[in-house]
Amino acid sequence: MCGIVGAVAQRNIVSVLIEGLRRLEYRGYDSCGVAVLDARGPTRARSVERVADLEGQVRDGNLEGVTGIAHTRWATHGAPVTDNAHPIFSRDALALVHNGIIENYEGLREMLRGKGYEFISQTDTEVIAHLIHSLYRGDLFAAVRAAVAQLHGAYAIAVLHKDQPHTVVGARQGSPLVVGLGEGENFLASDALALAGSTERFIFLEEGDVCELSLDGVRIADRQGEAAQREVRQVAAYGGAVELGPYRHFMQKEIFEQPRAITDTIAQTDAFDASIFGEGAGQVFADIDSLLILACGTSYYSGLTAKYWLESLARIPTQVEIASEYRYRESVPNPKSLVVVISQSGETADTLAALKHAQGLGHKHTLAICNVGTSAMVRQTELSFLTHAGREIGVASTKAFTTQLVALFTLAATLAKLRGRLNDEQEADYLKQLRHLPAALNSVLALEPQIIAWSEEFSRKEHALFLGRGMHYPIALEGALKLKEISYIHAEAYPAGELKHGPLALVTEAMPVVTVAPNDALLEKLKSNIQEVRARGGQLYVFADADTKIVNGEGLHVIRMPEHYGLLSPILHVVPLQLLAYHTACARGTDVDKPRNLAKSVTVE
Ligand code: HGA
């Protein structure tokens, strides 16, 4: 999703800004821009193409400066056209970039029009630029503080003013913003990753903070306007660009990285000990009587899968909710419930807002399952479990999902043990199964050639149905989501037993039906559902376990998984669905790593 980079230095910082945008590019965007200050005021270049095009414009226009801001935009208000691309100017004196959404922009726009401001763009962002300009009395830091007090919604901003060379002011509320500290130069970005190569020392701004970057330092004011001291963190892990290696796309690379990602994620687990989830977790786990899982998209499906584990292994009531829905409905809070938030980036705006809402309702116990240790989510929860997926570049999540499942299984087993429902022998068995996962994943990945053969067929379809039962129903949901995200084929998932209650009406030979068929207690029921589809001429594509007696036949195509994986089966069964979506998208020639309209790390509500 959209990205911010800012810099104040004694050297030309355009290359730092462009390189920062390039590092954020994988998140998806539809336009980009950069502005620098020179003696006459801010000058800018903007593009509705790629950062590479912006770089060309900057080079051709000799854009240079020691103070600058830059942005990749994922449009929320106004089409992705040049006039709406950031940086947005106010009266050629001030330039501003913004991530987020200003909810009261219409009222502010009317007020500012009344003061004579002309609006050029359709963005909500333009009100921030004019508002700061209208409040500017020679001190940009003060003007920004006064302006943000009038904003409702979410924002991370970076702004510069022609009368204050060597100054960039930033502010955040609901969207991430981080300060990078250099020697005689300082930086600002929506993600520390953007500043890799420029610094390893960061300050992660807190909600409501306003900061002012100058050549020799940074000052920060908190929401009340008081000077604030924030911890400086050394974060070295951001170095080095991620290489594609022998793979065609990052998504393919990330699918194949899953054995490594899971090895790293389980490395911290020698036993199902509460301490894995942080200091004090034992006490928290003893205190709770239920779980409330809040997440979005793929992370929501990992939560749905976990519900089966948590209720069957630990016998703990578990509710799973879409974060953006939970936040806006009247729920009945239970202070003895552990709120679990799941997000790859730890910056998902909907999930952060839901977390805050839950805390506001009196939920005191919170746990984040997240892939980024420095994220807002980890900082705002009592307990955390870090998945070690490594940086995920593909917009369609793969290794983040399977490592989340590992984290959630570990949580279920840990709670089961604490509640006297896991004896030593079972614990040893589950640990053994977890350790076997990387090898098992490698065998599943070896099915790729068979899946490529199916993907040719799929690439000619416009619709697909996915079926699963029990804990594989969320896996069917995830398979359908992957296919629609990257191949743009309309796909839906149902628990197989629901077929006859409606969706069976859709089944014809033109509708492939993908079925996740592990050899579990529900297999016989699933086989009946398969016959219901065959009887109507439907084409079935079944991922069956090694010992399942489902064989190829008329209208029935079977790929056999190498083993039967028991309780961990969802972690294995999702992999062929990832590969099917990936190869179908490749056959259709879509932009797999940056699917249309989508963005990585969804930092707007
Ligand atoms: N609302 C602003 C910024 C959009 C954004 O944050 N996208 O991720 C706009 O539409 O320009």
Automatic annotation (TrEMBL):
One Gene Ontology MF term: glutamine-fructose-6-phosphate transaminase (isomerizing) activity
Domain of life (superkingdom): Bacteria
Entries under Gene3D superfamilies matching the protein: Glucose-6-phosphate isomerase like protein, domain 1, Glutamine Phosphoribosylpyrophosphate, subunit 1, domain 1
Residues annotated as the enzyme's active site: 2, 600
EC numbers on record: 2.6.1.16
Residues in SIS domain copies: 281-421, 454-595
Locations listed in the record: Cytoplasm
InterPro entries in alphabetical order: GATase_2_dom, GFAT, GFAT_N, GlmS/AgaS_SIS, GlmS/FrlB_SIS, Ntn_hydrolases_N, SIS_dom, SIS_dom_sf
PROSITE patterns: GATASE_TYPE_2 (PS51278), SIS (PS51464)
Pfam families: GATase_6, SIS
Residue span(s) of domain Glutamine amidotransferase type-2: 2-216
Keywords: Aminotransferase, Cytoplasm, Glutamine amidotransferase, Repeat, Transferase
UniProt catalytic activity: D-fructose 6-phosphate + L-glutamine = D-glucosamine 6-phosphate + L-glutamate
Role: Catalyzes the first step in hexosamine metabolism, converting fructose-6P into glucosamine-6P using glutamine as a nitrogen source.
PANTHER family: GLUCOSAMINE--FRUCTOSE-6-PHOSPHATE AMINOTRANSFERASE, ISOMERIZING (PTHR10937), GLUTAMINE--FRUCTOSE-6-PHOSPHATE TRANSAMINASE (ISOMERIZING) (PTHR10937:SF0)
Assembly and oligomerization: Homodimer.
NCBIfam families documented for this protein: glmS, PRK00331.1
Protein name per its UniProtKB record: Glutamine--fructose-6-phosphate aminotransferase [isomerizing]
